[in-house]
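Project standup — Tuesday

K.O.: blocked on the structure for the chain from last sprint. Re-posting the sequence here as requested.
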Amino acid sequence: MKATLWHDPCCMIDDSTQVRSENRSPDQLRSIRFNNHIAPHATGSTLIEWGQTRVVCGVTIEENVPRWMKEQKKEGGWITAEYSMLPYSTLTRKQRDASRGKIDGRSQEIQRLIGRAIRAAVDLERLGPRTIWVDCDVLQADGGTRTASITGGYVALGLAIGALMKAGTLKQSPIIHGVAAVSMGVVNGIPLLDLDYQEDVNADVDMNLVMTDQGQYVEVQGTGEKGTFGHESLQQLLAYGAKGIAELCELQQHAIEQG
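H.V.: unblocked you, prediction finished:
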């Protein structure tokens, strides 16, 4: 396992703002670290430590495509994702999906989001007739597990594509741009970037943003949890989100380059 990167936010905070974890200002990310190659049998993997949230992201490759692609004669490959929270990842034990006999609605929604986000980064025709699986397993949850899964999943993807190119399986990278995700919200009337669990459960407005490293939107999820929000708040949240995404994309690229 190789610790590729550590991002530590400044510890200064304006006295007029509420105190946040790691003494962050409203527009600051939590500390972020990527530990690459944590799963030796995966083609690419990383453990993303985002504040107190920790997610193992692994990418494996299958040299075939789903049946529906063959039936519809779709060219190229496919990318799909699976997401799970381990029983000990939360304060109270979370029952495994397997013991219930089905995936819960939240997990299903998140893994679909991860799949959409990672597909947005890849030219599927250039990928060729193969399937990329992005598996995200939450070891510890303190808010932002879906955004950490996307952000870490992209790093695992970059490492996997690098391995395929080194092996000669791919002659050209199918990655067309980077992709990352971050949460935002309004807590006690204050717009904030990157909510931890305590902020998330008390948020009046909860948002998740997925963007490319070119500043293009992939997905915006926003909900007035305890009320409505106006145009000004929305614009502030999106500005915070875009700033956070730009920082994340730089961290991702450095982690991939470090290998």
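K.O.: great, moving the ticket to review. The radius of gyration is 18 Å. The beta strands are 2-7, 32-36, 44-50, 53-62, 78-85, 131-140, 179-187, 190-193, 205-212, 217-224.
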